[in-house]
Amino acid sequence: MIEEVGTTETGDLVINVGPQHPSTHGVLHLVITLNGETIKKVEPHLGYIHRSIEKMCESLSYRQFIYVTSRMDYLSSHINNHGCALCVEKGMQIEVPARARVIRVLMDELTRLASHQLWWGAMAMDIGALTPFFHAFREREAINDIMEETCGARLTMNYMVPGGVMADLHPNFQKRVIEFIRFFRTKIDEYDELVTGNIIFKSRMQGVGYLSPEDAVSYGCTGPTARGSGVSCDIRKLYPYEVYGQLDFQEVTATGGDCFARYKVRMQEMRQSISIIEQLIDNIPEGEFQAKTKAVLKLPKGEFYSRVETARGEFGVYIISEGGTTPYRIKFRSPGFSNLSALDHMARGHKIGDLVAIMGTLDLVIPDIDR
Amino acid sequence: MTKEELKVTLEQLLPSPAFEEGAEWTTVVIDPAGWEGTARKLRSAEGLKFDYLFCVTAIDWKTHITMVYHLTSTVYRHTVVVKATLDRANPVIGTVSDIWRTAEFHEREAFDLFGVEFKGHPDLRRLFLTDDWKGWPLRKDYEDPVNMIKL
Predict the structure, then answer these.
(1) Which residues of A fall within a CB distance of 8 Å from B113?
(2) CA A72, A77, A80, A86 torsion-angle sign
């Protein structure tokens, strides 16, 4: 890799960004070929946080492996756990109690809010606005406190288990979520006032990092990255799981395909998540929070695939079972991995400063990419 | 298209397809030698239009390696799973990275962890592991006394 650095015969400059760099939010290493300040090529080097989670899972039981998946996309840990639990439930044909289904959706949407808040703060910071970061973390703290009470953790939740959730909701949960939503509704308008309309911010975002709908599909982009290009790909709408089919919410899409479109999609998604939480928080059914399951889970021989919508896009769990207590092979289809593959295509022809904006709106979480 | 209709269409389109039963989606096993041609047909055939490749992976069965491609059409919303059986001693299959761009990264991952060679891939290098890494870690017979913890 060292010999790649320097000036090429055609006069292009090859530079390294990362693995440790404030704008990459994790150990992502980019080798960038520049002509002046114009990007000719961006080549991601991955693997700095590769732990071979798929290999690890082959020796873990169907209860144990879910905990490892919290360490992939740590900002969507609930949703990762959810996808895995769904896959095991599909294989074993476990019926999840109504209460657990609603709790799961509530947790998913709170996670999505927390993840988008962090994205908003971090992305604005990349662009050069430091204040939003503190605003975002102040509001995110409230969600973390709610999670801590019920799940006992603030980041790697490990709350969803095959058959339902690990423990019942904390008695304060409902009250605190309602308080939080009331508080956050005003804050999200403040976010818009603070950043969205800002002329400097807009000029950094508009027309930068264009991704056409065809390319978004071809590159396998999902989540707000693809929806910013007008591609309808929300798993919650297309293949509803749990109670998403009965809820009233919209799939947010924008047509610009640039950084600003992706930004707008995420901002609107926060409002949709609030709406979903409001619909459910007063209607949590009474009853069991976990189905009765055997102590040792065994999936029948065959293969099972489940898909869920994380804050970054489509997360897939593919289990190949030989009928034992551990998976024979497991594959995690992580949304960040496919989204990152489009980075080179989006960044070509732009200036080096725009790369930071493009990476910001891709919302990359490196452990999710490296696994 | 329903599972049955899809099966009928694929039978007409592909040379000697074999179907696997019992899975959630239509699963078709194809000959790896003609995979690129088959992929092109799946991508562009009227009524199929599988334009979104959402998962690519390999499975080591100790006697052979199976490549698995999950495809969806964003137009018709039907899904097909394509499998190809490869020789474990010399796993080679054509690349589809020019048909679905996402395959470029996914195939590099399969090369890195399983040692599957993709003919015609523009940049087939290790993706996660260092260039001088020995062996294919996700194969079942892989041993690494330093980095692997046996549970």
Answers:
(1) 52, 54
(2) positive
Q: How many A/B residue pairs have CB atoms within 8 Å?
A: 82
Q: Confirm if A323 and A301 have CB atoms less than 8 A apart.
A: yes
Model confidence over A21-53: pLDDT tens digits?
776 777 888 888 888 889 988 999 888 888 889
The whole-angstrom distance between residue A230's C-alpha and the CA centroid of its chain comes to: 19
- For residue A36 the two structure tokens come to 């002046």
pTM of the model as a whole: 0.88
Structure tokens at B71: 């495809």
Among chain B residues, the shortest Cα distance to A48 is held by: B128
- Residue A312's identity, in one-letter code, is R
Q: By residue range, what is the domain housing residue A324?
A: 52-370
| Best CA proximity match to B74, nearest among B54, B101, B55, B96 | B54
Closest partner residue to A231 (CB to CB) among B25, B59, B74 is B74
Token representation of residue A278: 């409001």
Q: What's the complex ipTM?
A: 0.88
The CATH code of the domain that includes B38 is 3.30.460.80
**Number of folded domains that form chain A:** 1
CATH assignment of the domain containing A76: 1.10.645.10
User: Into how many domains does chain B fold?
Assistant: 1
Q: What is the pLDDT of residue A226?
A: 92
Strand partners, A309: A314
What b/e sequence results for B90-110 when a residue is b if at least 16 CB atoms lie within 10 Å of its CB, and e otherwise? ebebbbbbebbbbbbbbbbbb
Q: What would the DSSP string read from start to end of A218-266? A: HTT--HHHHHTTT----HHHHS--TTGGGS-------S--SHHHHHHHH
